[in-house]
Amino acid sequence: MSLIQATEWAPDEETRRSCQSKGKTEIECQNYIRVLLVNKTEVMTCGTNAFQPLCITREVWMSVSVLERVNGVARCPYDPRHNSTAVVTESGELYAATVIDFSGRDPVIYRSLGGMPPLRTAQYNSKWLNEPHFISAYDIGLFTFFFLRENAVEHDCGKTVYSRVARVCKNDIGGRFLLEDTWTTFMKARLNCSRSGEIPFYYNELQSTFYLPEQDLIYGIFTTNVNSIAASAVCAFNLSAITQAFNGPFRSQENPRSTWLPTPNPIHNFQCGTINDEGPNEGLTERSLQDAQRLYLMNDVVQPESVDPLVMQDDVRFSNLVVDIVQGMDTLYHVMYISTEYGTILKALATPNKNLQGCYLEEMELLPPGVREPVLSLQILHSDRSLFVGLNNRVLKIPLERCSTYKTETLCLEARDPYCGWDFRQRRCTTLEDSSNMSQWKQNITVCPLQNQTTNGGFGPWAPWQPCNNDDGVDGVSSCLCRSRSCDSPAPRCGGKNCQGPTIEVANCSRNGGWTPWSSWGQCSTTCGTGFELRQRSCNNPSPRHGGRVCVGLSRDERFCNEGVSCPQPIFWSPWGSWTKCSTECGGGVHSRVRTCENGNSCPGCALEYKACNLEACPEVKRNTPWTPWLPVNVTQGGARQEQRMRYMCRAHLSDPHELQIGRRKVETRFCPNDGTAACETDSKSLKGPPTHKLWWSSFPSADLQSPCCMVCNMRGIYFFSRILQ
């Protein structure tokens, strides 16, 4: 595919700002194309235009040239997320099913443009349209058909969704006074797509349709509700079955509280007939306006072509559908291409033959492994025999026929592909159109193909030996014999293993192997002391091939290195020495031990270690000094005197009795009369007083005389000081 023309169509800045001022996001305030219709030489496009819908008509081959601009309201939704559909008739009328207001609360089926008057469904009447999701629209004969799903107004027990087909007459001009500017021919009927059984299982939500005008068939994809277990089905409806439902009785409700009951159809075969009488009602359809106002829901359900759906699958949701009619060997086949929410395409058969119902021919993976992306649209271009797949940001083109992928007769026939058959004359799988002779073309579509049949690959026979040339890059080009085989008997399928073994054999041109030059010597295995280093070479200069001799000799060579480089001696501490004698015999002392740093002086830690010792208390020692001579201290007027003498008493807990602390002094006083008539009377008492001899501690030395700090790593160290008792 190649790009022919491109036209950018974006909302102007003022429109975008107006959209955002109403609470919409920047992403919502863009222009999303929701209607694209081709009518002869013109193409009509309608876009959301930042919540101000706009339609533009251009020439098909001149997309830059704008022929007409019209308001897009009632032709295109405001919100790009709203489901809508449209179709243009040959006479130029546009039939659109969309929402007509900004909030999306007024759904409408609306006719505009062309020569007919604009008409719409009844406004704000949920019995006509009840929160619908429009799927598709078709111009068929006298009617325009609309396919949709909506909340079932006739369901009186909870909320449920029904799929519908609605139709209006193309010649409808509305009512006079009653239903003015409103459809008078609007009718709708329920579509039934269900799995048969005692209690049928219904697929209530229509997702996509495809119309086959050659067969008057409408194919539809139906799924379960999004909140239910995922399941999907494809049902086909004949236009005659749809017409039969519209010709049957209506279902109506007399008042909002009454039940919905069948009501006879006044016109059993309504074909958009009109009133021919001249007067105010000239041109009106033959339906009475009173009936048109209350009779629009059909009582009968449109039944599908077959009792069970053509295809059913659980745990997956189908999204889009196209159907191709293929001429087989004996009959016509309807081949369905069904897209899934995961981004795959299912190729299946649609046939009334019970042996072929639900036949999946193949599943095509469009995306890389692990990537999931829903398919937005499918379209068949018959002139190109291709299927076009619309994804979020690209379009894929897939051939409808891929018969060349089936290499053998067995694979071709077991594929059960209506496009393909085995041509015995050409000995290959071809389409019917490409066959050399109809009588030489075989097809076998009697049962469904086997699915998920894992097949490991197998080699076919060797082809005959043929001359071939071999260029080894060294000895030049040599003549050889070659033969090959393919992994196609069978080819690996469904995850089967590939063939194991060579696909080519070469003979009569053997080549002996040759060594490459030695590599440089590698790094020595040690940094000191004797080690070894290595060099290598490979036998690929050239490599031995086709029975040639391998290289003779070693592929690696070693030698010693660093033989004269001695490794340094390890640095370590010697064992600790013995503890020295304790500095005191009692009262707490210290002793020490030492160690030395071997082979250096940078060992971590301390070389000297101290420890407390002899912590028990020393015995108490007492000592008295001799008495001093008697000395007078007080003399009376009468000549008497008082004399004193003293001695000192020392006591301490010391190991050495000579190191005593001076304690109390003892003083004796005596009184002596001057006449010597009596002996001196002695009075003894102990007094605190200054000692005649004092012991004291010397001061601590200065910092420069302190011992070296003993510290290990980042721990706190200790300095040692000493002083002397003097």
TrEMBL record:
A GO BP entry: axon guidance
Domain (Sema): residue spans on this chain: 1-400
Molecular function per GO: chemorepellent activity; semaphorin receptor binding
SMART domains according to UniProt: PSI, Sema, TSP1
Keyword line: Developmental protein, Differentiation, Disulfide bond, Glycoprotein, Membrane, Neurogenesis, Repeat, Secreted, Signal, Transmembrane, Transmembrane helix
Topological relation to the membrane, as annotated: Single-pass membrane protein
InterPro entries: Plexin_repeat (IPR002165), PSI (IPR016201), Sema5A/B-like_TSP-1 (IPR057563), Semap_dom (IPR001627), Semap_dom_sf (IPR036352), Semaphorin (IPR027231), TSP1_rpt (IPR000884), TSP1_rpt_sf (IPR036383)
PROSITE patterns per the UniProt record, alphabetical: SEMA (PS51004), TSP1 (PS50092)
Primary localization class, coarse: membrane
Subcellular location: Membrane; Secreted
A cellular component annotation (GO) from this entry: extracellular region
Pfam families: PSI, Sema, TSP1_2, TSP_1
PANTHER family reported in the protein's UniProt record: SEMAPHORIN, SEMAPHORIN-5B
Protein name: Semaphorin-2A
Organism of this sequence: Lates calcarifer
Lineage: Eukaryota, Metazoa, Chordata, Craniata, Vertebrata
The gene coding this protein: SEMA5B
